[in-house]
Amino acid sequence: MSSLSEESGATGTPGARDVAPRANAGNLHGRAARVLLGVTGLAAIVLAWWIGVALVSRHSALAAQFGPLAAWRTFPALIGEDQLLTHIVASLRRIGVGLAWAMLFGVPLGFLIGRFKALETALSPALQFLRMISPLAWMPIAVMSLGVGDPPVYFLLTFAAVWPIVISTAAGVQQIDARWVQLGESLAATRAEMLWHIYVPGIAAHVLTGVRLAIGILWIVLVPAEMLGVNSGLGFLILDCRDRLAYSELMAVVLVIGALGFALDTAARAVYQRFGAVRERV
């Protein structure tokens, strides 16, 4: 018996040890393949952009300023003057403030809607009506009510971002297992304990999903919102480049907007995936 166990240990353990390295190697290979495909797709888009501008520029010399090479040559001047960094910081600050206000209003409202059916029935038509109104439609009202500067921008960003957070939070509350709620009530848990130990872990993943969707909406609304009498931000820089007929700089700013939006979405996705992995281990 001892010899059989020794043989099984001698032959089984190395095989088990080989599984993890092979799995890790497979994961790395899959990630490398996905990255390569993503880079190939981006390269194809840039190539199509370059070809399109080259064809149009045969009939209009002005079109050459919208090409990728002209935009790339503009970056050193924008970065060297610290102009670009100042506008990026201003835009990111507005995104952060708008998202914070949206979460401050959206999470409690979504929790109440998901927790009380009567409240959902009463508020659902009004919320769906407001959600379908474009945030940009409120621009004149925001300026007349709040003046020029950051306040109307914050209002528009908050109005744009609050809806996905409300909907995701309400869905998370409604999908909490009723047995967990019954268990907490049977243990005489207080409202604070129920909120912290049952509801918050149950809806956190849904809230993060709403936040990720809200960030995408915020980044789209940000550029036109920053055309409301502010003197900083990427939206303001777009207008400034247009007024100065600096079209190559304008295209460079467009590329920066796309890159920053991609980075924000990647960061939000990483936070969500990390939280989901922690929940699976728990």
What does this protein structure show overall?
By secondary structure, this protein is an all-alpha fold. It has two domains: 56 residues; 221 residues, Orthogonal Bundle (MetI-like fold), CATH 1.10.3720. Helices cover 84% and strands 0% of the residues. Helix 2 packs across helix 10 and helix 3 packs antiparallel against helix 4. The longest helix has 55 residues. It is globular. It starts with a helix and ends with a helix. The N terminus and C terminus are likely disordered.
Task: Name the descriptors.
282 residues; mainly alpha; MetI-like fold; 0% strand; globular; disordered N terminus; disordered C terminus; transport; transmembrane; transmembrane helix; MetI-like; NitT/TauT family transport system permease protein
**Residues in β-strands, percent:** under 5%
User: What is the second-level CATH architecture of the largest domain?
Assistant: Orthogonal Bundle
Q: What global shape is seen?
A: globular
Q: What is the tally of helical segments?
A: 10
The total of beta strands comes to 0
- CATH topology of the largest domain, anyone? MetI-like fold
Fraction of residues in helices?
over 70%
Judged by helices, strands and strand pairing, the structural class is: mainly alpha
Major sheet: size, sense and barrel closure? none
CATH C-level class of the largest domain: Mainly Alpha
Transmembrane segments: 32-52, 95-114, 126-147, 153-173, 194-225, 245-264
Main location: membrane
Subcellular location: Cell membrane
Membrane topology: Multi-pass membrane protein
